[in-house]
Amino acid sequence: xxxxxxxxxxxxxxxxxxxxxxxxxxxxxxxxxxxxxxxxxxxxxxxxxxxxxxxxxxxxxxxxxxxxxxxxxxxxxxxxxxxxxxxxxxxxxxxxxxxxxxxxxxxxxxxxxxxxxxxxxxxxxxxxxxxxxxxxxxxxxxxxxxxxxxxxxxxxxxxxxxxxxxxxxxxxxxxxxxxxxxxxxxxxxxxxxxxxxxxxxxxxxxxxxxxxxxxxxxxxxxxxxxxxxxxxxxxxxxxxxxxxxxxxxxxxxxxxxxxxxxxxxxxxxxxxxxxxxxxxxxxxxxxxxxxxxxxxxxxxxxxxxxxxxxxxxxxxxxxxxxxxxxxxxxxxxxxxxxxxxxxx
Length: 344
Known about the structure:
Layout: H1 26-33, H2 40-46, H3 57-68, H4 82-94, H5 105-113, H6 115-124, H7 135-147, H8 160-173, H9 183-191, E1 202-208, E2 211-216, E3 222-224, H10 229-234, E4 246-247, E5 250-251, H11 253-263, H12 272-278, E6 280-282, E7 290-293, E8 302-308, E9 311-316, E10 319-324, H13 328-331, E11 334-339, E12 341-343
Antiparallel strand pairs: 1-2, 3-12, 4-5, 6-11, 7-8, 7-11, 8-9, 9-10
């Protein structure tokens, strides 16, 4: 039971595994629960496919549902544009559906009728802080443990150690570092599928009253990806752009990054926003760092690899090309640089 507001114990997330929000896929969900009894109108609602460029009442209903679940914050206008597509991708990512930005029957059924979607909304709208206890705290501790921020007993008690883990997670991912697991922190935490397990955390942590004494692990095992990655990247110049592409037959921007880094044995997340959260911020890019840009939506939505001399390589509308960061288009959209770090 949540001692502060009495809701923690009542919310049982039955389909979430110990690692946090590992939701059943559509086949498993059907087998476990059986198909829900839907009206003819509800069947029609989910037996369709909505995609980029579509307009109408069906798209408006989609936007309203996404907005209620806090995945969509733009205008409800019935136009399936970049913001709607991005919201669908985020929903698919969180609920372990193929991330393609297309609202097909599987995505729509999960969106409109799944208890998991509603539970996710309820949970990530919560606020947990020091002194709270219950099922929600257990799930937060388990997720933090999986990501490498919490290395202690999962006891369902939001104490100084849990607060410290939340604070470090917030600090790494650009949130206000107050140690309070609010809606934004929770949503980011449980959508984070990067199984890091390698985050440099406090080695010795003891509690003196409520004061936390921390001794940091020396950062001797971390090193940047070496610059030879540039040779692999430049060999791909001329490869055509392909939405969702992840191979030399065609790349989108994040597919290109993932492919190149994989050639060096480095696994990075699939989407630009997750690469942004995964990598380490640097003030000034060096050769091999990832440079990020804000293009069709707020936040990081495009990225490339810095080559040095003010140039970067990326997969854009013209395919894999080398561009100047000082060009009028890219300069005004530049967000920052991050370094992909390997750990021994």
